[in-house]
Task: inverse folding
């Protein structure tokens, strides 16, 4: 019983982390509509850094080396624009649709890994990419087909694809980061560098948020830290192939929070497209190499 409980905890932690981050997206949509995307994103990153930085400092791990710091800066810059474009898309599209389309990022990451890390793309992964593209087109077709095409919808879709592309590239950087830095350090510099990058535009775009927006931003910052640490804790204790399917529960969470907070209804096209994209990601996911009994026993 204790052994089963031990194996269940990473799964539950990953599920909780995905739920926290999905609720964070909903809070950021509310904050972005109230105070603007830039203000909400800047303050979320800043507050999240303030929350996690003392934990990193208390560990007395020392300042990162030059190569590691360059990775932190690279991911922080990419994540800053990724967040801005995603939160902008949330103000133009239902949350569940945005989350579903963003699932194409792992498929795009395969090609970034091939170009930048020299990883070989399996034939099945190419077919999965086509299936994922079909799923994405189903969602977009459902969105454009049931309403008159508006400029805001097109801007939201374009922004979402930019965010998904940056998210895919982010996978490659995270893969490098995870080899040289712990989750607390990664979270600290991820939020800190992202906040500094966004701060450069403060004279042009920042506006003081009201109490309602600030509350949503504060909750989003807490959820960002809690979700990131929960997912990191889970992935440190269980194989990625076991936990990756949990990521797709984010669609269910997004649909729930979108309905509860914004009255958003999930369409059949969105569900069908999400299923196709999730299936594509499952096909593209690497399979564990089966070892012989000799290898397992070490004989």
Result:
């Amino acid at each position: 019983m204790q052994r089963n409980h031990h194996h269940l905890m990473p799964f539950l932690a990953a599920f909780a982390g995905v739920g926290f981050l999905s609720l964070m997206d909903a809070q950021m949509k509310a904050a972005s509509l109230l105070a603007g995307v830039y203000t909400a994103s800047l303050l979320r990153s800043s507050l999240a850094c303030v929350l996690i930085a003392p934990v990193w400092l208390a560990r007395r791990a020392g300042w990162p080396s030059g190569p590691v710091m360059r990775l932190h800066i690279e991911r922080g810059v990419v994540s800053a624009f990724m967040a801005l474009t995603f939160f902008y898309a949330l103000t133009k599209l239902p949350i569940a649709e945005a989350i579903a389309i963003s699932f194409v990022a792992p498929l795009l990451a395969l090609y970034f890994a091939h170009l930048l890390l020299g990883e070989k793309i399996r034939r099945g992964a190419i077919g999965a990419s086509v299936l994922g593209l079909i799923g994405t087109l189903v969602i977009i077709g459902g969105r454009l087909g049931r309403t008159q095409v508006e400029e805001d919808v097109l801007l939201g879709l374009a922004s979402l694809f930019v965010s998904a592309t940056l998210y895919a590239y982010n996978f490659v950087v995270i893969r490098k980061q995870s080899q040289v830095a712990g989750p607390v350090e990664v979270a600290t510099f991820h939020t800190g560098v992202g906040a500094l990058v966004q701060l450069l535009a403060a004279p042009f775009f920042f506006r003081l948020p009201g109490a309602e927006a600030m509350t949503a931003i504060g909750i989003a910052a807490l959820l960002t830290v809690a979700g990131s640490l929960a997912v990191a804790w889970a992935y440190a204790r269980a194989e990625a192939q076991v936990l990756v399917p949990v990521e797709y529960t984010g669609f269910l969470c997004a649909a729930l929070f979108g309905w509860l907070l914004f009255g958003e209804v999930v369409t059949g096209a969105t569900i069908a497209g999400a299923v196709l994209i999730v299936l594509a990601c499952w096909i593209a996911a690497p399979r564990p190499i089966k070892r012989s009994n000799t290898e397992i026993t070490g004989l």
